[in-house]
Every structure is written in structure tokens, then in C-alpha cells.
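Q: Now give one record:
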Amino acid sequence: KSKSKSIKAYYLLILIEYYHLKNNYTEHKYTVQKLINLLEKNQFLTNNNRMCILHIRLAYLSLIVADFLTALKEIEDGLAYLEGVAKAAHSQLEKVKVLVLLNRLDQAILHAEWLALNYGDSEITLVSNATSYYLSVISFLKQNYASSVIRIDAIKTLTKNKEGWNIWIRLLIIMCNIELSDFDTSDKLIESLRKFIQRHTKVDERIKV
């Protein structure tokens, strides 16, 4: 059995991917935490970017079991390693999502607006558009349906993602139109969504119409 910390770190990385493929969330999370502990004690093996990624992985695993408070903590722990770094934009976006899930809508708005201000004119187009999407979701949850539609109509890049964002954008627009009592438009949008899903067979199996 090797005493090398480097070999142990690589071994834990392999285990993490193994548990990920097996959908074993308990062992997956335990192993990620074990790797974090090892790297914290042996900082020559790691860097800030890797530490952030590992904490975001823990946040993802917490989201799977709807442990939103832990997810928020892990995101904030991860972001602490990348303060002021452009690569942190995607992790900042995850924080907005978790704040929405926690129903901390005012905090989510402030953070989303901060994110849009800092990355809105950058080359990170996906982050900028995704921020607008979450602001649309927040408008919907605050019952500002017309505002939600206006925000979502302004997003272009995300609709090109045929198997991901596009679906959620369509669903949000449908829900807004239902809340606005525009049932004719809602019916047309639902039928369009049904045909869209039929055309794209790789759509996530969780989505059924």
C-alpha cells in the first residue's frame, strides 16, 4: 500500500468518477469530502481552481437530495478559492440557482444583478444569458408574469441549446401565458413543445409530455 499522497489523491479521483457512474451519491459525496480533506492538508498537490471544483461537486450532490442549505454553503466555500477570477462566473451562477431554490428571491435578485453587471459585457455569453433566465424565473415566482416573458424573450443564445436550456425556457413561457390567461397561445406553445421533444430524441428522460 503506497504512502504517497499524490497516488492517494489520484486514487480518490478515480473513485469519485466510479461512484458518479454508479450513481452512488452517498459514497460519491464521502469520497469528494475525503479528497478535499487530503488536499487541504497537502496543498502542494492542488490549486484554487481544483478546490473550487470539488466544492461545487459537493454542492451538486447536495442539490440531488434537495439539501439546498448545504449546497449553498459548498458553493460559497468553493467561491472563496476563486475570488475575483473570471472562471468563477459559472459557480456564481450556481449560487443564484440555489438561492432561488431556497426561495431567497431578493438575495437571488441582488446576486443575479451583480453577476450581470460583472459578466454581462464579457465573453461569457452563456453566463450572461443564464443570469437573465434566472431573473425571469424570479419574476415568475414573484408573480410578475409579463416581466418574466419580456426577460425571457431577450435571451437568444440559450435557445440554441436544444436538449437543455431550450426546454426550460419553453416551459417557463408556457407557464407565464397560462398565468396571464392567454390560453390560446399556451395551447399552441404546448403543441410546439410536444413536437420539439419528438424531434429531439436525446431530451432528458425526466421531461415527458
